Every structure is written in structure tokens, then in C-alpha cells.
Amino acid sequence: MTHSPQSVYPRIEQEVAARADRLWDVSCALHREPETAYEERRAAGLLTDELEREGFLVERGVAGLPTAFTARTGTAVEPGDGPSVALLMEYDALPRLGHACGHNLIAAAGLGAALSVRATLDPVAGTLLAVGTPAEETGGGKVAEVTAGLFDGVDAALMFHPGVHDWTWAPLTASAQVRVGFHGRAAHPTGNPTEGIDALGALIQLFNTLGVLDRRLPAGSHIQGIVTEGGHATNIVPDYAEGLFGLRGGTTSALAGLVDELRSCARGVALATGTTAEVTDVGGRYEHFRDNDVLSGLFARHLQAAGITLTEPKPGIYLGSSDIGNVSTRLPAIHPFVAIMGSDGSDHTPQFARAAAGPRGRQVMLAAARALACTAADVLLKPDVPARAWAAFEKKAAAGM
Questions:
Q1: What Rg value do the Cα atoms of the chain yield, rounded?
Q2: Measuring CA to CA, which residue among 80, 84, 104, 81 is closest to residue 92?
Q3: N or C: which end of the chain has fewer CB within 10 A?
Q4: Can you name the residues that pair with 174 across neighbouring β-strands?
Q5: Which ranges of 148-251 does DSSP label H, i.e. alpha helix?
Q6: Is the pTM above the cut of 0.90?
Q7: Which H or E element spans position 371?
């Protein structure tokens, strides 16, 4: 059967509307029982059951992650057999705050989009993927999925994020977690003070050095650290001290340079204090987000049909980091923000968690599901869309953006 995009959009809207109550039930079920990174067993089970019930071929535990999954439908036998689009779902929650980042809405919108596209286009010419991406808040499930090749051959990765702004794309920085440990020599601070080499003093000196460095960092970059080990008694010179540092850079290359500066500072402090320093990465690095304006423009136009107007982000405002960055630097991707509360609010708060289960949250989830589905249909039905999306991707990649 041949489908024209203009005839498909109303049918997608009908499919989303027919599933509205069920999608909201799924969203509320995730919200009621929040699960943190890598523990999202109920969430993954609920989502895969829904997809399997409607004819998707589901593979659980992908990329070596028990709570990650893919659900596939379409006529393609091998990668490259026609267009391919992936709808991404996040569903991990925050410790003690639950779904204060609204991932229950992301999961339900991605689910609704996937089910609606399949029902409208069946059989899908090409490949339609629904990808379960655990541990966005801590750990980075998408980092592992990219490494495992889950997105190889995919032309577009689509998701939305609830927020406090209506923005076409997300100004997300690259980020890394780095552990710095200093080894010294224990001593009694009164009995034999000259024998001691104070590891905690070295760590404190590193914090002071980084404070000077921080004043000259460009916009979008910063270093924030905490002391994770600093000794065990006040009458013993600490022979080991450790800090954990979160680093962010406006681009992935800027982050790499900042990590190198941290290593240089640690080596300099070690030399000055007679300690030895160990600097190690903790987990995978999140890369900066590269928006695909071809795809985000399509999403914005489809969302406008629901009365929600997206604008460009305000210059100089950064909204954190996400593992969607690692996807976006490898293939065309979108990550628009759609507000579920006013711009005077913030995510990662109890108020935002309540909004993610409120009427505005439901309205945005359904509008995003429809806009994601229509954008996915554009990729699958209009040959020029993936071609233009890849051209825009390559242009930004060449410019280091």
C-alpha cells in the first residue's frame, strides 16, 4: 500500500487519540513506581509487553544491559534496506525524587509514537525501531547502546524531553566524572609530623587550584567536585584522600581539554606536595548534543498543530548533559524540550515530579507522541528527509559543532 504523508498525519492523530488513556496509564504506572538507573525492571517489562502485544519483534537485555531493549518492525532484512528511524524511550528515575525529570512522559510518548506509526503504515517500508534506553541520569545507557552498534544504519533518532521551556533543541554540554586520588604517608601530627605527607592537604590544594582555573573557563564549561575520602582520624596525617569531580564542556573537544587540564593540575599539586596522584574516569563520557535542524524543524511544525510553539534556546543557557549527545554525534537526532510547567520552575524538584503526573504533563505527552510519530513518518516516507538530515549532520560535524 502506498502512503502519502498528508494522508498519514490525520491517521496518526487518530491512532494516538485512540491510545490516549492507555498511554497515560503507562505513564502514571511508571510515575507511581519509580526505578533508578539499571534497576528499571518493571518499566522495561511494561513497555516491552505493550510493544510485543502490538506486533513488534522485541529483544530484551540488549547492549549487555538487562533493562535495555529494542522493538523492531518493518520490511528491511539488513541495515540499509530502506529508511530507518528510532524512537527513544527513557524511564529511569532519580533517587528520592522519583520522576522529577519526567522520564515517564518520555517513555509514554515514545511508546505512543511507535505504536501509532506501525498501525498507520503497516507494513512499514524500511525499519521502525523503539529503543529502551536505561540509566540516563546516572551511567548512560545510550553510551553502551552506541558502542554495541544499536544505532548502526539508523537515519534518525527521535525523542522529546519535558521541561520548563518550549525549545526546538536542547543546549546540552559534554560531561565526565573523574576521580582524583592522592597517596601520601601517614604520621602522627605531633609525635612525628615531619614524617607525614598529607594526602588531604594535596586534595584541598587541588580544589584551590581548580577554583583559579574555573574563573577563566568559557561559557558552558565548569568543574564541580566533592571530597569522597579525606582520612579517618584527626590525629593521623591522612595517607590517602580522594575527590570526585564533575566536568562539563560546551563541546566534546572542550571537555577533553578540560579533563587534560585537571590531570595537569593534579600532577602539579602532587609534585608540589610530595604526593602521588591517580586520575581515572568514572563511567562513560557524555558528548555534547548536536541538533539536527532538519528533523527538529519537522517536529516543531508537527507540534504546532497541538498549539505548542517551539523557539530557539536562549543564548548562554545550558541545561545540563545527557547521553543523547553520544547518539547525536553519530547520526541525525532531535531532543526538543516541551514545557510542563512555567519557566520559573526547574526539573529535578518535587514540583516537577508532580507536574509529570498532572494534566499539563498528559497534554504534552500526547502532543509529543503525535509530533514524534509524524516526524518518524516523514523519515520513512519522504526520501529527501533522511538525505537532508544526513547532509545537515555532516555539515555540523565538519564544523566541530
A1: 24
A2: 104
A3: N
A4: 249
A5: 199-214
A6: yes
A7: helix 359-381
* Nearest CA among 129, 75, 151, 177 for reference residue 331: 151
Answer yes or no: are the C-beta atoms of 45 and 146 closer than 8 Å.
no
End-to-end CA distance of the chain: 40
Three-state secondary-structure class, residue 278: strand
Calpha distance 126→86 (Å, rounded): 11
Q: Cβ(246)–Cβ(223) under 8 Å?
A: yes
- Residues 372, 160: contact at Cβ < 8 Å? yes
In angstroms, rounded to a whole number, what is the distance separating the alpha carbons of residues 214 and 298? 39
Can you read off the three cell numbers belonging to residue 191? Answer: 609525635
Q: Is the dihedral of CA 306, 309, 313, 314 positive or negative?
A: negative
The mean pLDDT of 20-46, rounded to a whole number, is: 98
In 3D space, the residue among 61, 42, 46, 39 whose CA is nearest the CA of residue 110 turns out to be 46
Least confident of 58-62, 170-174, 214-218, 229-233: 214-218
Q: Cα angle vertex 130, ends 362, 156, to 5°?
A: 100
Burial zone of 170 (CB within 10 Å; 0-12 exposed, 13-18 middle, 19+ buried): buried
> pLDDT of 233-289, one tens digit each?
999 999 999 999 999 999 999 999 999 999 999 999 999 999 999 999 998 899 999
Q: How far is CA 212 from the centre of its chain?
A: 30
Task: Give the number of other CB atoms < 10 A from CB of residue 178.
Answer: 21
Write out the E strands in 150-251: 156-158, 161-163, 174-183, 222-229, 240-249
Partner residues linked to 59 by β-bridges: 70
Encode pLDDT of 80-114 as tens digits.
789 999 999 999 999 999 999 999 999 999 999 99
Write the CB contacts of 284 (distance below 8 Å, at least 6 apart in sequence): 139, 140, 143, 144, 323, 326
CA separation, residue 105 to residues 42, 86, 310 (Å): 16, 17, 18
Candidates 64, 73, 72, 87; CA nearest to 135 is 64
Query: Concatenated DSSP letters for 304-354?
Result: HTTT---BPPPTT------THHHHHTTS-B---EEESS-TTS-SSSHHHHH
**Placement of cell 565526565 in the chain:** 176
- ∠ Cα 103 132 144 (to 5°): 105
